[in-house]
Amino acid sequence: MPIAATGLFVYSICKGHGVGDWDIGPVNLRSSTVGNTWISIINSIVGNISPMIVNQPDVSRYANDRKHVVIPQALGFIPPKICILLFGMISTVCLKRAYGETYWNVWDILNAILDNEWGPAARVLIWFVSISFAIGSIGLNIFANTIPFAADLASLLPEYFTIIRAQVFVGLLAWAVVPWRFLSSAQKFLTFLSSYSMFVGPILGGMLADYYVVRRGNIHVPSLYTKSSSGAYHFYKGCNIWAILCWVACPVIAIPGLIRAYHPNVSTQTATDIYNGSWIYTLLMCFTLHSVCGLYFKPKLYSDGHETSPKTWEYLGEFNGFFEDDVPINGVGYPGTVERDYEDKSSSGDEKGDGDVLVVEVFDSKV
């Protein structure tokens, strides 16, 4: 897909005879409108990648070291994302100069090339680009959408769903939201991104506040795998009521703008400005509200019996998220923990059966 996108980008520049002469006409904006326009642009971009931001724990949990998560994301995500934005804008401008129309999505560009450059070479080019983008879209949806959804659904309903079964289910469920309606025009697509991000932004804000402010970077791993009320995350029958209320309350400020996006005569321009920056505003609002509620309600940070343990920044990080008396989980536990498993020698083929063998496994702190 990167090769196909780069090839299409180079073709557009060559066909448009260079990158210059954007020909967008004069833009006259009031000072207050300029700021809101910038926020709207940032909101649209971040809204597009917000599912990746929120769903990272479902993928990064497979890493064995923090740098295995940070470095690949920083180098493999941020620069390519900037390149894609530049590729799209420059390709659109160049092909407008060549064909006289503005195309905002890829398939319109490919159709325009076929209409204006019909021939064997153009058909082969479009075929390779199309199949590359199709495969890339499938891979992206598996990574960004089906795996996170499947992980959540399999956790909520483990009796009915496995990871694979939940991935198939969401593939079928996707048809119910008629996604092609979102892509019928550029304006509808941007409206969808803003409306989607106004619900995702508070999730991220609550996650950041809970980790950095309320818990100060401490996650007790065994409490994540128990339904017992002695765990750190049981709250009220397994639900953190005040955190849910924080998430529900924050998108309210953007709902008038969402209504005005479909009914322009309703509400005011201020509502639209808030809606256009809904990801940023709702994230900051939920971060603040969740922090205040966390400091007020003071949820327990550790499981019962460890109330007096230090609550300094990422204290449990040094111990893999375990206390010394915690039972290891799937080969991970408190550094230096010894797990004893007695195994009968006779089961391994020893006919004499000279007693039991003591198998000792020491868990490395780097796990």
From TrEMBL:
GO cellular component: plasma membrane
Keyword presence, Cell cycle: no
Source organism, top-level taxon: Eukaryota
Protein name (database record): Allantoin permease
GO molecular function, one term: nucleobase transmembrane transporter activity
Keyword Membrane (UniProt): yes
Transmembrane segments: 124-144, 156-177, 189-214, 235-259, 279-297
Main location as per UniProt: membrane
Annotated compartments: Membrane
Natural source organism: [Candida] arabinofermentans NRRL YB-2248
Topological relation to the membrane, as annotated: Multi-pass membrane protein
